[in-house]
Write a structure and sequence with these properties.
The chain is of the alpha/beta class. It has one domain. The strands form 4 sheets. It has a 6-stranded mixed beta sheet with strand order 1-14-11-13-12-15. Strand 8 and strand 9 form a beta hairpin.
Length: 363
């Protein structure tokens, strides 16, 4: 369950910028970006569910794409994980954080790493955080926010049938993530519900220019407690199928500190220095052998060693986020549970920072 700060910080709205004038560090070629429709049939519990055993998902052919060539070109030109950002920065050689052991212990050394995404359904909804692609001409609709003074005002291009985390009847975080490749923007809502006027109501919302490295105003939330984008930290099937995930992953922790580290902009915890702050970078230890894992899990293990994970929200311990996809093999994802908190360490990522108000990272 999402935890929000009791006191909402008042901040001055910064003017939006339409371009990125900050240094970028281009990584290798990225796999195709695609966000398939939410699964429509139940295939069993998620890879991370506390069930008697993992769901069995037999491999099958990849579904054919229905995207037009123009849509493909727009998508290829707009990466949901901006090049040169901290999400793309390698952390394999960064020093351990001086409070690494304390932070890892507070998250849980014995708790298992869990893929909070998969194929099929769980509790009547897709497993993971789905992404809705805004097509050309998608109408912009009003959104009313509970945390309006820390949310980017609407209207947002959210279709009435937008995919909601957990499904239309879900009672959890109910994220809506809209990816607009033509405008190269991401629109993200937390606790989103349809409103009677054709619009939406939500706890909070954020709009991201995916060609900019500008962070949100310090003290502002987003659709995540850390004030960071959700989209950038999601594991996508296409990445794993290509054999590599070239960015850090979104991860949740049960309890967090009332403090945040760059690049996070917000926190939602308590004054306990033993707890991890939002924005903390966690890294899988180099001694873990990725070849012990089947292909879908192997790519995630390698990403956690090279890019790590960013503490982004309060939730279950060591849960990494991804998009639902019928091509996930839940049995393979379930093997990530062989890893526990004891296999991780916190790193000191301060040397990556170019500017405290920028997501850009040093190479």
């Amino acid at each position: 369950m999402r935890v929000r700060a009791a006191v909402v910080t008042t901040a001055v709205l910064l003017a939006a910028t339409g371009c990125n004038d900050e240094p970028t560090r281009v990584s290798g070629a990225q796999p195709p970006i695609a966000f398939p429709s939410a699964p429509g049939q139940s295939a069993g519990p998620p890879a991370g569910a506390g069930s008697a055993g993992p769901a069995t998902t037999p491999p099958g052919p990849a579904p054919s794409t229905t995207a037009t060539s123009a849509a493909r070109a727009a998508t290829a030109a707009c990466d949901p994980v901006p090049a040169g950002s901290h999400w793309r920065a390698t952390v394999s050689r960064l020093p351990r954080h001086p409070r690494s052991a304390t932070y890892v212990a507070s998250i849980g050394t014995g708790a298992a790493l869990t893929a909070d995404f998969g194929s099929g359904q769980w509790d009547g909804g897709p497993i993971g955080i789905p992404v809705t692609v805004a097509r050309a001409g998608t109408a912009r609709v009003p959104v009313r926010f509970e945390y309006a003074d820390e949310s980017d005002p609407g209207p947002y291009p959210i279709p009435r049938n937008a995919k909601v985390e957990g499904g239309p009847g879900a009672s959890g975080d109910r994220h809506i993530i809209v990816y607009d490749p033509a405008a190269c923007r991401a629109y993200e809502l937390f606790d989103a519900h349809p409103a009677g006027n054709g619009g939406w109501r939500a706890g909070s919302g954020a709009v991201y220019n995916l060609r900019s490295q500008r962070l949100r105003p310090d003290g502002w939330t987003s659709a995540d407690a850390a004030g960071l984008p959700v989209l950038a930290g999601l594991v996508r099937y296409e990445e794993v199928a290509a054999g590599h995930v070239d960015h850090a992953l979104r991860i949740t922790v049960p309890r967090s500190q009332a403090a945040h580290l760059w690049p996070a902009r917000h926190d939602a915890g308590r004054k306990d220095p033993a707890l991890p702050p939002m924005g903390l970078r966690l890294r899988l230890r180099a001694g873990v052998d990725p070849n012990r894992f089947p292909p879908q899990a192997r790519a995630i293990v390698r990403a956690l060693q090279r890019y790590g994970a960013v503490v982004a929200d309060n939730g279950s311990a060591w849960y990494v986020s991804g998009t639902p996809d019928e091509r996930w093999n839940n049995d393979q994802l379930h093997t990530l549970k062989r890893l526990t908190g004891a296999d991780f360490e916190a790193v000191d990522a301060t040397r990556l920072m170019v500017n405290r108000n920028s997501a850009a990272a040093r190479g």
